[in-house]
Amino acid sequence: MIALDEIEAGAQCTHKNTRLRYTVVDVDAKACEVLLEAEAEGHEPLTVPASLFQAEFVLGDRYSDPRRGRGRGRGRYGAGPAPAPTGPRSKGKIKKMVRDRGFGFIRGENGKEVFFHRSGMNSGDYDAMSEGDTVEYVTQESPRGARAEHVRAVSEPAG
User: Fold this and answer.
1) N or C: which end of the chain has fewer CB within 10 A?
2) Sequential DSSP letters for the chain
3) Domains of the chain by range and CATH?
């Protein structure tokens, strides 16, 4: 875990789960908050509690997940290719999209709702989707619960 006194303005950091890279803009020790600026276009500045920053971010502009092992090729974020989700493909409809934050929820044909993030899709697909669209996805368990990965739009049969 990162010590609070190690966090300083201008430091590069990477979110462990999303692999998104940020620059620390300011550290407010009194409020115990860290203000971050995303490197990716279209992302708003982010203020996170220091405790969350310490648990979910690593300092440095690259993050290699130690659970992935060594000897793999280096991918876009320096950690090698992400393992492909396994399991059956499910079908459902997009129930809600939170465009400014890059995520949404899918109601599966089984009636259960599952979270999805734009990082679980091909680039550009997120912007083309709307609430009510039919999608296919693979459900993966994450520390925060079920998450849809490899989300893609599917056309409904004419009828």
Assistant:
1) C
2) ---GGG--TT-EEEETTT--EEEEEEEETTTTEEEEEESSTTPPPEEEEHHHHHHHEEESS----GGG-SSPPP-TTSS-PPPPP-S-EEEEEEEEEEGGGTEEEEEETTS-EEEEEGGGB-TTHHHH--TT-EEEEEEEEETTEEEEEEEEE-PPPP-
3) 4-64 (2.30.30.30), 89-153 (2.40.50.140)
